[in-house]
Amino acid sequence: MTTFLLIWVGRLLTALGSSISGFALGLWIYQQTGSVTQFATGLLLGFAPGMLAAPAAGVLVDRHRRRTVLLCADAAAMLAAVAMAAAEATGHLAVWQVYATTVVESCCAAFQWPALAAAVTGMVRPEQRGRAGAMTQTALAGAQLLGPMLAAVLLGAGGLRAVLWTDVVSFALGLLTLLVARFPEPAGHRDRPRPPGRATEPAQRPSWRAELTEGRRLLTGQPGLRHLLRVVTVLNAAEAAATALLLPLVLAGTPAADQNAAVAVVSTAGGLGLAAGSVAMSIWSGPRRPLAWVTSATVLSGAAVLAAGLHPRPAALSAAAFTFFLGLPVVTGCAQVLWQSAVAAEAQGRVFALRRMFTQAGTLLGYLLAGPLAAQVCEPLVGPGGPLDSTLGRLLGTDRDRGSALLLCCTGLLLAVTGLAGRRHTVEALPPPEPIGCDRTALARIPANSTDAEPL
Fold it and tell me: For this UniProt entry, which segments traverse the membrane (predicted)?
């Protein structure tokens, strides 16, 4: 656990630096161009390149040492940050340079997070993996909460230059923790078998297509794992859609003089829920029935979103935001433990990279579809004069922006149904090796409602 704590501190620093610079650069783009489209383009470039790079990243993570992959990805991201800081210092910073740096950092993240998630399997004991996953979620939650505030402080104190060099320093500190730390690698990276009579030449590797096919099979081959992937993807899409829909609902139900305060209260409630859930999972060693907890937390989050749609007032929206984000780290932490147990260590890079691609696709779809669905599909149904105005429209606790309220209700129902649909699934798991690379010939079957292994 000591090695993980050292790596965790480095990831916290780099995530915080990226959050600070991301907020400040998005603000800078909008101030320079006055264009919402160019601002949104920057947000899109933070997702799309990493999604496209995920399959290749997963194969490379499994083919090379995880520490080496993390070092190279962090170094590339730091060089991009240095180039942008130098451009700003010389007065040549342009929007296209910010876009280029965003693309590089998005691609680097496609390598960083699968490599880190796979490396945790070897550096943390099985009973501590839920706590380790929750601590990673806590670092991300802390970065999201503190990033905008620290960015505002740095922008006031030293302008954009201070923000960009802070990002560079955070990458350098993260690299330093990786240089100091030593953690186990899969056995195949140390003792790869060689053909007889050719001891000096490496064994022939499977093709990239074969390795990706195997990663996809491991990711979705079991009903329980398919259910986990479906839950986490829908949860990410619901988070994105709810985030996009909450703002118009808060504004619709609040007098103009109180709108800024209401938006701040709802946003803070969501951040506090995420922080509370993450800290609780970090302190707790993990549930004995992780799949059951995934189901319960997903249903609870869905019920919170449904309640927000039915009663879209600031107080109810704040309570719903807190509850939804409270369950988020429970789902992600328990799902991570199940994936680490069910997938062999030398294949986790591919599996975790493909999983990240699916879940990021859910986030992207949530952002892209929330607005059009609310305005063009739901609003005509329940708005004034719509076919459901006098029935379903009256159930919604607002007379304005009913389309967003209805879509929020539908999102909550979809999330709850998705969680309940796989409540009877099980996950077949390998006994976690310690360290990575020991014998895996003995399989175990782990029911959803027990952590006791039943030998096959």
Answer: 12-30, 36-61, 68-87, 99-120, 132-156, 162-184, 227-249, 261-284, 291-310, 316-339, 360-383, 403-422
Lowest mean pLDDT among 61-75, 199-213, 272-286, 399-413: 199-213
Q: Spell out a b/e string for 338-369, using b for 16 or more CB atoms within 10 Å of the CB, else e.
A: bbbbbbbbbbbbbbbbbbbbbbbbbbbebbeb
Q: How does DSSP classify residue 400?
A: S
What is the Cα Rg of the chain in Å?
A: 23
- 167 with 290, same domain? no
Asked if residue 211 is part of any domain, the answer here is no
Cα–Cα distance list, 420 to 43, 94, 298, 376, 413 (Å): 33, 49, 8, 29, 11
**Would you say residue 199 lies in a domain?**
no
Write the CB contacts of 437 (distance below 8 Å, at least 6 apart in sequence).
Answer: 184, 185, 186, 187, 188, 190, 191, 345, 346
Residues 133 and 231 in one domain: no
Q: What is the rounded distance in angstroms from the CA atom of residue 101 to the CA atom of residue 99? A: 5
Confidence of residue 288 (pLDDT cuts 50, 70, 90): confident
Q: Which residues of 58-73 are buried (b: 16+ CB within 10 A; e: fewer)?
A: bbbbbbbbbbebbbbb
The 427-429 sheet, strands edge to edge: 427-429, 444-446, 454-455
* 48 in any annotated domain: yes
The model's pTM is 0.72
Instruction: Look up residue 198 and give its amino acid.
Output: R
Are 172 and 257 within one domain?
Answer: no
Q: Residues 276, 152: one domain?
A: no
Domain-embedded: residue 203: no
How many angstroms separate the CA atoms of 356 and 362, rounded? 10
Cα of 161 vs its chain's centroid, Å = 28
Show Cβ contacts of residue 407 under 8 Å, excluding neighbours closer than 6 positions. 241, 245, 309, 370, 373, 374, 377, 378
Above 70 in pLDDT, residue 456?
Answer: no
Q: Which of 228, 193, 192 is nearest to 351 (CA)?
A: 228
Q: What angle do CA 118, 122, 66 make, to 5 degrees?
A: 45
Q: For tokens 């876009």, name the residue.
A: 99
Which residue matches tokens 């000591």? 2
435: pLDDT confidence band, cut at 50, 70 and 90? very low
**How high is the pLDDT of residue 455?**
29
| Residue 235 contacts residue 415 (beta carbons within 8 Å) | yes
